[in-house]
Amino acid sequence: MSSRFYDWVDSRTGFVTFMRHKMGQAVPSDAFFFCFGGISLVIILMQLLTGIFLIFFYMPNPEFALQSIERMSNEITGGSLFRNMHRWGSTLLVATVFTHMITVFYRKAYRNPREFNWTSGVLQLLMVFLFVITGILLPWDWRAYWSYSIWVDYVETWPVIGGFVQTFLLDTFTIYRTFIIHVLLLPLIITVLLVFHFKMIGKHGISEPL
């Protein structure tokens, strides 16, 4: 009975044959290190879902930003869980993306013909760092205030452009603009990069397929 059901499903979807093929493939001893790209994608999706939840309660105003987060964490059902998932998810995302890039670099998978795979991956890592930076600022608590102060002072030490960049940051910074960058601009950019990244992987494959 079950065999006929599997055959019926397989004749219409090919799923059973596909899974049997995958299950029969040899897996290298270091297969674990091939998983960090997929793990990073899962965490990005988790950040998206938890971030959508936070948007409904967060107020991008320096006077009420921290209050809105405290209210969400203490009074809204599941608020503390979603906030902590989002906060710690960002730390995990940095770790998994960085590990993924170290693995790719170690295996020299950035060489011809995968240069664009590598470039888009580096840009995604930069986007992740920008997500973390803007996310730290949004609560506008003591940690956000002093982090911003330290970053601005550090930027001033850059040769040639340091003073200009520092002035730009001081003149244009607002919580609302940071919020728009965090929830609209950066997600749009990283989505484009992810689509391009997957298209390149689909075209060239991974360096050592499982």
Domain count, please report it.
Answer: 1
CATH class: Mainly Alpha
Run of helices and strands: HHHHHHHHH
Largest sheet: none
Number of helices: 9
> What overall form do the CA principal axes indicate?
globular
Spans of at least 5 consecutive residues whose pLDDT stays below 50 are none
Find the CATH superfamily. Answer: Cytochrome Bc1 Complex, Chain C
The span between the termini is 33 Å
Rg result: 22 Å
The pLDDT mean sits at: 89
The count of DSSP E runs of length 2 or more, i.e. the number of strands, is 0
CATH architecture, by name, is Up-down Bundle
Structural class assignment: mainly alpha
Strand fraction equals: under 5%
Would you give the CATH topology?
Cytochrome Bc1 Complex, Chain C
Give the fraction of residues assigned to helices.
over 70%
Describe it for me?
- The protein is mostly helical and about 210 residues long.
- It has a single domain, classed as Cytochrome Bc1 Complex, Chain C, CATH 1.20.810.10.
- About 75% of the residues lie in helices and about 0% in strands.
Give descriptors for this structure.
210 residues; mainly alpha; Cytochrome Bc1 Complex, Chain C
List the helices and strands and how they pair.
Blueprint lengths: L1 H12 L1 H9 L12 H20 L9 H11 L3 H28 L8 H23 L4 H15 L5 H11 L2 H30 L6
Helix pairs in contact: 3-5, 4-5, 5-6, 6-9, 7-8
Give a brief rundown of this model.
The protein is mainly alpha-helical. Helices cover 76% and strands 0% of the residues.
